[in-house]
Structure formats: C-alpha cells, structure tokens
User: Fold this.
Amino acid sequence: MARRTKAEAEQTRQRIIDAARKVFYQSGVGRSTLEEIAKVAGVTRGAVYWHFENKAELFFAMRAQVTLPLIDRFDSTLQSGQEEDPLEGIEAALNEILSILETDATTREVFKIIKLRCEYVDEFADILVEINDSHICLAEQLTLAYQRARDKNVLRAGLEPRAMALDTSVFIVGLTQRWLSESASGPIASNARQMIRSHVALRRQDRQAGR
Assistant:
C-alpha cells in the first residue's frame, strides 16, 4: 500500500511538471501562476505546494528532467570520438545537441522556455546561476577534448584549448538560441550543421603543416 502511495505521489509530481511546462510555454514563466498550473494538472494548489515550495523550484525540476539526460548524451558522444580524432568527437557532440532538439518535443519546449520565455530576476536569479554553472561544466568538458586534440596534433598550432573551449561553448549556446527562435526553414536551422562543421574545421591543424 505504501509503495502504491509513493508511486501515485510521483505520478502527481510528474503531472504537475508536465502542466508547468505547458503553462510556461504558452504564457511565459513570469505570467504563469501556480493556480493555473494546478488547474491544468487537475490537482489542488495545495498539492502543488506539497511537491514544490514555489514556482522557481518547479521550474528547476522541469529543467533538470531534460538537461541532465542531454548533458549525459553530450558527454557520451564527446568521449566516444576521442580516441582517433577529438575534434570529430566535438563536432559529433555539438550535432547531438541539435538532434535532440529536433527529435524530442519535450526537450525543445523546455529549452524554448529557458532561453526565450523566462526573465531571470527575483526568485529566478538563482536559476540563472545554475544555468551559468552548466555552461562552465560544458567549457570544462570541451577544454579536455581540445587538450586531447592538441596532444594528437590535430588542433591548429597556436590555439589554446581553454580559449577554444570557451569559444565553442558560447558558439553552441548562441546557435541553439537562434535555432529555437526561428522556424525550421529559417537560415540558422537550415545551416546549423554546416556552421558546426565550419566552426570545428577552423580549429583543425592543416594536414600538410602537421606532417
């Protein structure tokens, strides 16, 4: 019986998160209320507060459900391409982010909320810190990949791995934001993979110079 109650509580929590995503996406985070989210979820306002202290905590739970798996897939793809050519691993990992956004509607909606439908002020200021921390972690993973590229003599001479990692992290964050803000036939969406290919190619050691 206790196990069933725990399962039901988890189902209710997930229903609230799903409802929050729909309301945040339609109305924007700032204009959304817990009362509206409770109505969409089919629960009482008290049930929302039983699971989440405030709207910021609910937003963070919604974000974590899609960003943590995405980070895992990015890291896995980045690592899988390290043995022979770390730059290929970087390119594949950046393309993996686009693939997830293209194929997973829930992830796409959440990223649109994060990037386009939320102001990070007041109770949401701490969430902006979390987002910035995730960008730092991204840069750290990319730094290791660029260091391996330098060790394998595929990184162009004179380029510093840490600087290249920061540049790539800013590039992919900006690219995905533009990708999310336009239609599927827009210039960024249509050329995103070529942009990634060019971005990585500019960091590659000239094959003649590397001999």
Q: What stands out?
A: The chain has a mean pLDDT of 92. The chain is about 75% helix and 0% strand.
